[in-house]
Amino acid sequence: MESDDDRPRPGPELCTEAEVERLVHGFYARVRADAVLGPLFERHVDDWPEHLAQLVDFWSAMLRGTRRFRGAPVQRHLALPGLDAGLFARWLALFRATTAEMGNPVMREVADAAAERVAGTLLARYRVQSGRPDDGNAGA
Ligand code: HEM
């Protein structure tokens, strides 16, 4: 079994800022082209450059341990109507397809694990808010 110490960690050596940007921009290109997620994002994002910059800061924190990100992801997602396990699974599938093409397997491992963890937290919080705590699984 893999111990905690063998697992790759976030840090500046995991990937470059340019790789973080490539991940975020590549992922959002997929999201915006997606028949289900695309229209949902278009409805809720007014300022794409600002959103992308915010997401670069978020993923830079998750992957490289930088501290630029200032945001409130839980509150932002709680305010979105109609999120469910199917949407989160779709989001994760597009994310994993993007990290798989990055050519940096260690970054991919850390990014996929972080995405799954955060998706699980966001979905759990969302369900508590909407009174349906036990409805399926985002990662499945
Ligand atoms: C079904 C899945 C998801 C949908 C539809 C979704 C949609 C959105 C939308 C529309 C916004 C902009 C909200 C606003 O500016 O008011 C947003 C913000 C954001 N999302 Fe998601 N999201 C999903 C899952 C995730 C996951 C799994 C992560 C992280 C791993 C994530 C990270 C973020 C972050 C960091 C922000 C910016 C928060 C802020 O500005 O404070 N999202 N999301």
From TrEMBL:
Keywords: Heme, Iron, Metal-binding, Transport. InterPro entries: Globin-like_sf, Globin/Proto, Hemoglobin_trunc. Gene3D superfamilies: Globins. Pfam families: Bac_globin. This is Group III truncated hemoglobin. It comes from Coralloluteibacterium thermophilum.
